[in-house]
Amino acid sequence: MSFVQSAPQLPDPYREDRVLQSWLARVLPDAQRRAAETDFDALAAYAQHAYARQTNTMRAEPVLTNWEVWGNRIDRIELTETWREGPAIAAQRGLVADGHDRALGEYARVQQFAKVYLYHAASAFYSCPLAMTDGVATVLRDAPNAMLRERILPRLLSRDPATFWISGQWMTENAGGSDVGGSETTARKGADGNWRLTGRKWFTSAINAEIALALARPEGNPAGADGLALFCIETRHPDGRWNGITIDRLKDKLGTRELPTAEIHLDDARAELVGEPMHGVRAIAPVLQVTRLWNAFGSLSTMARCLALTRDYAHRRTAFGKTLAEQPLFADTLAGWEAGFEAAFHLAMEVALRLGRVESGAGDAQDAALQRLLTPLAKLWICKLGVHIASETVEAFGGIGYLEDSGIPLLLRDAQVFPIWEGASNVQALDFLRALDKLGIDALVDAVDACLEEADGVVSDMDAEAIHAAIRHADTWLRDHAGDITALQAGALRLGTTCARTLAAALLARHAAWAQRRQGDFASANSLRRFCAHGLDRIVDALSGTAETPSPFRPSP
Ligand code: MFK
Fold it and tell me: Facing residues of 170 across strands?
């Protein structure tokens, strides 16, 4: 028998994750961490179980049956095994409930997102409806409609699988996923006082959800985003029939293939108005803020999976007389991805921390500003980084990494959804610009300064100077272009990426200093050095990348 390579094994995603362990040790109070550890361990065990199963069953997908044999329309969805397990795990482990649990105080969101991070890569994107459910709970919590608060919300926050419901979020129509102001779905108030929605929704993920929030235009309202209103739909009648919904087909997607994403028609679907019969985009914005943070954590979870498998494989695979881990270039390459991942982890966790502080009442204006500014930054940079690291992982596994049944291509295909889902990177960059217009950049500059002050004496002058220089450049660039909306928009992604990387570096510096002083651990400091060496500033020349740059596809004048 010739040589057979042993397959990579997944180490314990909780106990063996240095970055998570170290961050929790610094931030989460000991008693709270101990209390949460049963769930952390259970989610890690589930991840290992699901990984072992997934390597044997690569192609599980949901099945839509539109018609039963006698000719009745049924639109039945059969879910995959991982999806059938989803409600019990989500409810019992508090994947949504924790984030809204006032008893967890300002750390509610941190605890919740640590769980999301542990669960996502095992969830076959059951995390998608959980993200939407979390966002919808955030809206319903403050909704003027008491029925929604009293009847629906407790189900979204339930820790009992028997009563737990998930929610969809139906915004996207054929006319636009980004520009939703052109939505064509109409809302009509009947003589019985009930609202009925009619139209077509084009990307309804988790169509098996019990409820969904949907945008629709009440009859007589003006065109544009402001004329839309936000509605809550229970997808089925109490007897199980669909509530004015037909499922045309499931989308044939590059990744996320266990997630049933549908095209649907609404035909007089009964709905509840969430608040006022206008300003629907403003009303749904909190959903976007929450789901975008889930995206960042989903991408981090994928990266952690990529890195864990690659690192394990690097100790199994021998080439040219050494393991890959002993090959200087392989080790250097891997350390580069790990540094980026670690910085990204700190950025996402900072958003979770600030969100929890704001929601629990422990936060101040600085927390609120940072939460608003950092959410689109985390989404735009971390989700792109996830695609890069997943792509590098395929390469690290060589030919086997290109084969479906290694499970590695799945990581890349799934990672690619994050920069698209809930607003593409350019949409995030423009959202960041809008938030800057309202809040200014001072909160970011102050946050960087505060981190560097805490890191003083431990982090090298060179790293500190690089971080300072990058945030000052962003500040100056903004002032230099104040009022020039074309230049600001053209540079928004470069500016956003620079700010994301710089904040991430500053947060990592603060943590590295803590880990070095308190635990004698230099790992984060090493990551910081490497991350800074890759350069923080992506703004470059203000003119590059604008419409004035000559295109290679146009003939020269
Ligand atoms: C795992 C799943 C896989 C399945 C495959 C997925 C494939 C992709 C499927 C999709 O289609 S995902 C795409 C989902 N779409 C989005 O995420 C929306 C992207 N577009 C945006 O984010 C736009 O910026 C947005 C629609 C929110 C707003 O555009 P508009 O129409 O120009 O409105 P405007 O005037 O900017 O904002 C309206 C109000 O909302 C304003 O409040 P006021 O009325 O008080 O002024 C804004 O301040 C507020 N707002 C907007 N974005 C906000 C926000 N508030 C807080 N946070 C935000 N992020």
Answer: 214
Q: How many domains does the chain have?
A: 2
The answer as to whether 190 is a domain residue is: yes
Ligand 1: does its nearest atom lie under 6 Å from the Cβ of 425?
no
Q: Is 40 inside any structural domain?
A: no
Give the nearest ligand 1 atom to 203 CA: 9
Question: Which residues have a Cβ under 8 Å from the Cβ of 298 and sit 6 or more positions away?
Answer: 116, 120, 127, 131, 418
Residue that terminates a domain, selected from 278, 296, 312: 278
Atom 7 of ligand 1, residue of closest alpha carbon:
421
CB of 338 shorter than 6 A to ligand 1: no
Q: Output the CA 182–ligand 1 centroid distance in Å.
A: 13
Pocket lining: 278 vs ligand 1, CB cutoff 6 Å: no
* Angle CA 163–360–18, to nearest 5: 85
- 424 phi/psi in degrees, rounded to 5: -65, 170
CATH number at residue 245: 2.40.110.20
Q: What is the pLDDT of residues 263-321, one digit of tens each?
A: 999 999 999 999 999 999 999 999 999 999 999 999 999 999 999 999 999 999 999 99
122-149 pLDDT, tens per residue?
A: 999 999 999 999 999 999 999 999 999 9
Task: Please check whether residue 150 lies inside any domain of the structure.
Answer: no
Q: Is 225's C-beta closer than 6 angstroms to any atom of ligand 1?
A: yes
| Protein residue whose Cα sits closest to atom 19 of ligand 1 | 178
Q: Could you tell me if 55 and 7 are in contact, meaning their C-beta atoms sit under 8 angstroms apart?
A: yes
Last residue of a domain, one of 278, 312, 345: 278
pLDDT tens for residues 449-506?
Answer: 999 999 998 899 999 999 999 999 999 999 999 999 999 999 999 999 999 999 999 9
In this structure, are strands 211-218 and 186-189 parallel, antiparallel, or unpaired? Answer: parallel
Query: Is 106 contained in some domain?
Result: no
Token readout for 49 is: 């179980």
Distance (Å) from CA 171 to ligand 1 centroid? 9
Expressed as residue numbers, the domain containing 234 is: 167-278
Pocket test for ligand 1, best of 202, 288, 289, 420 (most atoms within 8 A of CB): 288
Q: Is this prediction's pTM over 0.70?
A: yes
Residue 56: its pLDDT value, please? 75
517/454 Cα distance (integer angstroms): 11
Radius of gyration of the chain (CA): 24
- The burial of 438, by beta-carbon neighbours within 10 Å (0-12 exposed, 13-18 middle, 19 or more buried), is given as exposed
Closest CA to ligand 1's atom 30? 225
- Cα angle value 205/218/195 (rounded, 5°): 75
